[in-house]
C-alpha cells in the first residue's frame, strides 16, 4: 500500500486513499487534505479530513 499521508500524495489509488472522517469522501491528491493526530496509550491515531470545513464540523468521535 502506498502511504496515503505522503507529502505529495502521489500515486495514491482511490482504493488505498483515506476517507474524510466527517463526510466519507475519498481523499486523493487534495490540497485541502488535513490530518489530525493524537496519541493515546502510546499509539498514534489519525483522522483525515477533505477540507477545513469538514475539520471544523468534526465531532471528535
Automatic annotation (TrEMBL):
<dbReference type="InterPro" id="IPR055998">
    <property type="entry name" value="DUF7576"/>
</dbReference>
<dbReference type="Pfam" id="PF24461">
    <property type="entry name" value="DUF7576"/>
</dbReference>
<protein>
    <recommendedName>
        <fullName>TRASH domain-containing protein</fullName>
    </recommendedName>
</protein>
Amino acid at each position: 500500500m502506498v502511504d496515503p499521508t505522503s507529502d505529495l500524495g502521489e500515486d495514491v489509488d482511490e482504493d488505498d486513499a483515506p476517507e474524510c472522517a466527517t463526510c466519507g469522501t475519498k481523499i486523493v491528491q487534495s490540497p485541502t487534505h488535513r490530518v489530525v493526530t493524537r496519541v493515546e496509550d502510546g499509539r498514534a491515531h489519525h483522522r483525515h479530513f477533505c477540507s477545513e470545513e469538514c475539520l471544523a464540523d468534526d465531532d471528535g468521535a
